[in-house]
Design goal:
Order of helices and strands: EEHHHEEEHEHEEHH
Helix content: 25-40%
Low-confidence stretches: none
Distance between the termini: 17 Å
Number of strands: 8
Strand order of the largest sheet: 1-2-3-4-5-6-8-7
Mean pLDDT: 96
Structural class: alpha+beta
Length: 229
């Protein structure tokens, strides 16, 4: 950890521009470019209640409701929403956002994650997270956050798999959808990112997957090994 920040002048805020990966591109949400694909992904009936359970929105099953949301999302700079576009098909299969962007202090959060059925628990979803983290630290951010409802066990497990460190729970932090939210906080800081980045690169490499697409080494194992040195 670097305690001497005499020369720190802040981070570069993320731009409304595409972020390119191997499996996915992150494209600033655009109703014309992504509306049809995203509505199909988020409104898929199987698992829809679970996908929206911990999001601010109710399940988006009506196109008019979705269109109002995506118009608002496209106009927002914080949260800055990206569509997760599968490079093999050109289809937007989910969305996520960079938010609570505090460039002066070098802190930013990833949130509003909704990965449709074609993305969940895939290599592409992991790369979508990696691209945002890598952008954050390349832009001079010192801290990259993940927050979720403390009752959201899958989200907490995902944060730990992605290499975030659990920091604690803010009790009675928010009220949403008529219920209390105790918020679990996780972070990655800049001093940890080079080690985590190397683990991600090994995991994402083609050589880490067999002919059927199964991983040879898990990201959790690679991160644990990197932390041991």
């Amino acid at each position: 950890m670097n305690d001497d920040l005499t020369n720190f002048t802040g981070a570069q805020p993320p731009r409304r521009a595409p972020i390119h990966g191997r499996c996915v591109d992150l494209e600033p949400v655009d109703p014309d470019a992504h509306g049809d694909d995203l509505f199909t992904a988020v409104s898929e009936p199987v698992g829809i209640e679970e996908r929206f359970r911990y999001l601010p929105q109710s399940p988006q099953t009506e196109r008019s409701e979705f269109d109002a949301w995506i118009a608002e999302a496209a106009a927002s700079s914080d949260p800055l929403f990206f569509a997760v576009v599968d490079r093999s098909t050109g289809r937007a299969e989910g969305r996520q956002a960079l938010m609570r962007i505090d460039a002066a202090n070098g802190v930013m959060e990833i949130g509003h994650i909704l990965w449709g059925p074609a993305l969940r628990r895939t290599r592409a979803a992991t790369e979508a997270l990696f691209l945002c983290a890598d952008l954050a630290f390349a832009s001079g951010f010192r801290r990259f956050e993940w927050k979720c409802d403390d009752a959201n066990a899958p989200s907490k497990a995902a944060a730990e798999r992605f290499g975030f460190t659990f920091e604690g729970v803010f009790r009675q932090h928010l009220v949403y959808k008529g219920r209390n939210r105790d918020t679990a906080w996780f972070s990655i800081i800049d001093g940890e990112w080079p080690m985590l980045r190397s683990a991600y690169q090994v995991w994402l490499d083609e050589a880490n997957f067999d002919a059927s697409g199964a991983q040879r080494q898990s990201l959790r194992e690679l991160i644990a090994a990197a932390r041991r040195g």
